[in-house]
Amino acid sequence: MIKRIDVNDLKIGMYIHDLNSDWMSHPFLVNRFLVRKEAEILKIIESGIHEVYIDTRKGLDLPSAPTEGEVRRQLESELIEIASRHAAPPRRAEMADEFGRAQLVHSEANLIVRGILQDVRLGKQVQLEQVEPQVEKLTDSILRNNGALLSLCRIKDKDNYTFQHSVSVGALMVSFCNALGMSREAIHHAGVGGMLHDIGKMKVPDTILNKPGKLTEQEFQVMKCHVVESQKILQATRGISETAVLVAGQHHERHDGSGYPAGLKGDQISQLGQMAAIVDVYDALTSDRCYHKGMAPTDALRKIYEWSKFHFNPELVQAFMRTIGIYPVGTLVQLESGRLGVVIEQNDNNLVSPKVKVFFSVKSNTHIPPEVVDLSRKMGFGGGDKIVKHESPEKWKIDPLRFL
């Protein structure tokens, strides 16, 4: 049985099933192992990990600890309660009108960022005049309809992860700032910082940056230096804002002080730095890597919400969930009626009842005529159904973006 326990209850002989932390926040080569020494427990605590999941079939038990299923049900209940109280950010364009434009913006941004990062690798300075127009285009698209561009940001390939992740973080920061009602100027600077937040990785040796496996403890320490390198590069960039530097310099800080490079805690971290930490982890969790299968967005949001007790600002985590929805655009879901569909739009009134394009019946195992169902409406008015769970596109051999 899998259970969640506080690290202070860890004992030699327990089997760690999950360190319950994003991979860039701990130095362990593996995520599952039998605890054999007190030093291992101390190392877990020193890594800023507060809770872990143990497998009682492979090691000692803690009878009073909640099971993984109990924890999941509680978290999902809380997420739905939070989401049901809030509306989606306003839109100026429908998905059908914005998706094509968003594809062009996303493709161009990836090309530009790739070129900038390659230039930095060669020792050249960042040309801000190349970045700023792309951030403006990202912002315009997101203000028209944030779901279109953000759904595209989930498309990544393992060989080009660094620059694709940079574009995604830039877009997510723009969307997050807009949802919080920030000024156009603040949104712009945050977007620039998000797009360039990992630029210091160009100073990390390729053998470490592109290693097809988990980093060793020594390699992990080298990788962590990318944050300071990002700060140095951006501070030397003519015309860069202090806001952009803060986003890049603080995206690995954690609310409980367990982050790096400065170990800042709570309000010592700027609001935008706290937002960047959430966005960076969300995009990393949902991305496929050589050694890490990306989570479904809904699962990633649940983990970030779980970790918000310690690592993130809880209020900002809830605000981020309202920004993209519990079931973000492009999520494959199964409805209570047994139909499969793709979320195509967040609902203005209720984030747990989005608009879904259904196309397949699980009960009859057949395709059905595509139909848009507004889950916020009652039976007879285009609704009368609800999401029971999200599904794996790989399992059903479906590309959700085909239906946007």
Kindly list the characteristics that best describe this protein.
alpha+beta, 15 helices, five-stranded antiparallel beta sheet, 3 domains, Hypothetical protein af1432, 404 residues
State the major sheet: 5 strands, antiparallel
- Please identify the structural class as seen in this structure: alpha+beta
What's the shape? Answer: globular
The CATH superfamily of the largest domain is Hypothetical protein af1432
Strand order within the widest sheet?
Answer: 8-7-6-5-9
Overall number of domains: 3
- Rounded radius of gyration (Å): 21 Å
The CATH architecture term of the largest domain is Orthogonal Bundle
- In the predicted model, the low-confidence regions spanning at least 5 consecutive residues are none
The rounded distance between the terminal residues' Cα atoms is 40 Å
Q: How many β-strand stretches?
A: 9
Average pLDDT score: 92
The total of helices stands at 15
Amount of helix: 40-55%
Query: Strand fraction band?
Result: 5-15%
CATH fold assignment of the largest domain? Hypothetical protein af1432
The arrangement of helices and strands along the chain is: EEEHEHHHHHHHHHHHHHEEEEEH
Reading off the top of the CATH hierarchy, the class of the largest domain is best stated as: Mainly Alpha
